[in-house]
Every structure is written in C-alpha cells, then in structure tokens.
Amino acid sequence: MRNNFRTWLQCAALVVVAVALGGCPSSKRIVVEGYDDAALVRKRIMLLLPDSKDVKLTDAAAYGYARGTTAEGGRDQMNAELRTKLTYEISQHLDSNTVLNYADQSLSGSIMLNSTADFTGAQPKSWDAYKRAGREGNIDFFVVLNNVTFSNTASSTGGRGKEGIEADYSLLDLQQQKVVTSGHISLGQEELTTPADTYRRLAEALVGKLPFAVSEKKPK
Q1: 168, CA 20 to 30 Å: which among 3, 5, 26, 116?
Q2: SS3 sequence of the chain
Q3: What span, in angstroms and rounded, lies between the C-alpha atoms of 183 and 170?
Q4: Using CA atoms, how far apart are residues 80 and 55, in angstroms rounded to an integer?
Q5: What is the per-residue pLDDT across 104-126, written as a single tens digit (0 to 9) for each?
Q6: Domain spans in the chain, listed from the N-terminal domain onward
C-alpha cells in the first residue's frame, strides 16, 4: 500500500508540472542530458534559414508551377515561404516558447549571420557574432537550417505535383556556446494540396529532433 501511494504521489506531481508548463508535452522529441523542461520553456528561439540562393531546387519549373508561377518566380516565393510558413508551423508546435525568424528582426541588419557561410558542418566557424546576437537580441537558442533541397515532380493530371525536402539542422545554445544537437532530415515526395504541406511536414520532423516540449495540438 505504501509503495502504491508513493507511485500515486509521483504521478500526481508529474501532472502538476505538465499543467504548469502549459499542457502535457509530447514524447515526440529527443532527450538531451542537462536540458530538463524548466530549461527549455519560455525561451526565445531564432530560426536561421539559408538565403534563397543557397537553397537547391532540383526542378525549378515544377516548383514554380506548383505555386502558380515561373521557375524564376518560384525561387522568390520559396524565400518568402521559408521565412513565414516554416516559422509559423514550428511556432505552433513549440508554443511554450517564442519562435521567430532571425532575418525578420532589426538586429539582423547590424549583426549579419549566414546559415551557410558561417558554418562548417553543424558548428559555427566562430561563436563571436552569435554570442553578440544572443546578448543584444535576448536570444537563447538558434535553430539553424542549411543544405536545404526541394525535390519536385510535375503533375500529369493538372495538380500541383509532388514535393519533397531535405535539410541539415543544428540547435545552438548561446549561453553554453555549444551545439546541443544536429542531424539531417529527408522527407520523400508527397502530393501537394497546398504549398504549406511541405513546411508542415518539415516542422513536424524538425521539432521531433529537438529537446523542446512539443504541443500535441494540430497546427491550423
């Protein structure tokens, strides 16, 4: 009886912690030693995304067609979609934190960071600019994406066609000055209903590879 009561108290305590953090976090995330929930909520997370010229389109014409534009117009649209749709989708899952796109912040004009040129693999070539951005922008973590490739197959039936995406990612802890985790995501081609489909899939895959609590609610 005593052991059962102790187990009940432990379960009740976990429920209280979950509620205090804004709900029951999903198990679809990684566990990193030294990073408990208390260290991973109410943080400012910045996405550092590649410039459009650094993103590869295996079939620019099919990518543009899926969005009702040309190959040239598709690249411009891709840049806007990455900055808005991906940021939105990730923020819906990591809703215990503030998720923003670094390029949209005024700080990016004075401290220019580049997810391609600044990195050797997952590691920044120099931490100096990132530490400064963290101090001046009150940033706790950077989620960095690079080596992004969109693969498209045109539809033969008049639809948007199929689209897949792959990318390398890394999570930078600016206070500890270290790479918390890094890896590669590869999502095969699927039929597109809307251009947001790809970013929704990428966001779901990415947050599952980070240690932050993931909301179970579905993005709108």
Answers
A1: 26
A2: CHHHHHHHHHHHHHHHHHHHCCCCCCCCCCCCCCCCHHHCCCCEEEEECCCHHHCEECCHHHHHHCCCCCHHHHHHHHHHHHHHHHHHHHHHHCCCCEEEEHHHCHHHHCCCCCCCCCEECCEECCCHHHHHHHHHHCCCEEEEEEEEEEEEECCCCCCCCEEEEEEEEEEEECCCCEEEEEEEEEEEEEECCCCHHHHHHHHHHHHCCCCCCCCCCCCC
A3: 7
A4: 13
A5: 999 999 999 999 999 999 999 99
A6: 30-207
Residue 183 to residue 207: CA distance in whole angstroms:
12
Q: Specify the pLDDT at position 6.
A: 46
> Considering only the top CATH level, what class is 30-207?
alpha beta
pTM score, whole prediction: 0.85
Read off the amino acid at residue 11.
C
124 vs 38, higher pLDDT: 124
Burial string for 104-126 (b: 16+ CB within 10 Å, else e) reads: eeebbeebebebbebbeebebee
Q: Please name the amino acid found at residue 71.
A: A
Residue 64 contacts by C-beta under 8 Å, 6 or more apart in sequence? 70, 71, 72, 73, 74, 75, 77
